[in-house]
Write a structure and sequence with these properties.
Number of helices: 8
CATH architecture of the largest domain: Sandwich
Shape: globular
Largest sheet: 7 strands, mixed
CATH class of the largest domain: Mainly Beta
Helix content: 25-40%
Strand content: 35-45%
Strand order of the largest sheet: 1-4-5-7-8-11-12
CATH topology of the largest domain: Jelly Rolls
Distance between the termini: 22 Å
Number of strands: 19
Length: 298
């Protein structure tokens, strides 16, 4: 992703010589992962600027818009998106209702009497049947149940059921991570027998297994209040988490990724979180493109 973003920056110059274009083509064709990363960078840039979603089309617009103007469009689009993050919606939780959050948005909903959910950034939840039957389509959510109904949540790899208590569910590439903060959670993987996740425990559920992940970190629940509390994290891990709460690309170089971090950081103002990192660590924040921010050695 960093290499793809760097190529995008180079191709965004006012003057791009043929040798640079040929080098970009060689890089693009050298590895299938390069093509995937380039497609992702194009997707991000198109989201902010409505620029064409192909490398050649981006280059073709050089004469029409000028590179500096194109980057200005990206910047203005980024600002416009930021203004719309906290838009309020009037959800009606009937049959087939879908609840969602934008990137950087955290919202709470009442699903049923005594049953609440907090949707994390860029997440989506769909009602399946009764007011206590839902499916997590993407992202993550925290559920608190103080009512009589049992929450039934489809996850794509299996189902979980929560009576009285509080749990957090998060989709991962390899499955679904579940943390039980209070009460116990019944897990029903699609292709194996059920398991019970005890209070204070975490697990990864796939279609074929439930793998224990150890005890929960109570401080992690504070994302519901818009805070990320970390204790001896690597900077790379912190940056990856903050990146979920802002549009575009947020990275750090390998030279600073292993620095250790302790503190509390705002999720509703990631620029302020990055400024705090620059104040407390030997790093600086570079804005390589309007949608690409990188943390580098100071």
């Amino acid at each position: 992703m960093e290499e793809a973003a760097q190529w995008f920056a180079e191709l965004a110059a006012d003057e791009v010589d043929p040798a640079t274009e040929r080098a970009w083509q060689r890089w693009l064709q050298a590895d299938t992962r390069h093509a995937v990363a380039w497609a992702r960078v194009e997707e991000i840039s198109a989201r902010f600027s409505a620029l064409p979603a192909s490398g050649r089309a981006v280059l073709a617009r050089r004469d029409a818009l000028g590179r500096r103007r194109a980057l200005k469009v990206l910047s203005l689009a980024l600002g416009g998106l930021a203004l719309g993050w906290n838009r309020a919606d009037d959800w009606r939780l009937g049959q087939g209702a879908e609840l969602s959050t934008a990137v950087g948005e955290i919202r709470a909903f009442e699903l049923a009497e005594g049953l609440s959910v907090w949707l994390d950034t860029d997440s989506q939840l769909a009602r399946m049947g009764s007011s206590a039957q839902w499916r997590l389509l993407r992202g993550g959510a925290a559920f608190e149940n103080h009512g009589a109904a049992i929450l039934q949540l489809e996850t794509g790899v299996g189902q979980l059921r929560l009576g009285l208590g509080c749990c957090e569910v998060r989709r991962r590439d390899e499955g679904v991570e579940i943390a039980s903060y209070t009460g116990s959670v019944e897990l029903f993987p699609q292709q194996t027998r059920s398991r019970t996740l005890a209070q204070g425990q975490r697990a990864l559920m796939t279609a074929t297994a439930v793998r224990p992940l150890g005890r929960v970190d109570p401080g992690r629940q504070l994302w519901r209040q818009g805070r990320l509390v970390v204790d001896d994290w690597s900077l790379g891990a912190l940056v990856a988490e903050l990146a979920r709460y802002r549009p575009g690309l947020l990275t750090c170089t390998a030279m600073v990724a292993q620095l250790r971090v302790v503190g509390s950081y705002p999720l509703d103002d990631t620029d302020r979180a990055l400024a705090a990192l620059a104040d407390s660590l030997p790093v600086r924040v570079e804005r390589r493109l309007p949608w690409w921010v990188q943390i580098v050695p100071a």
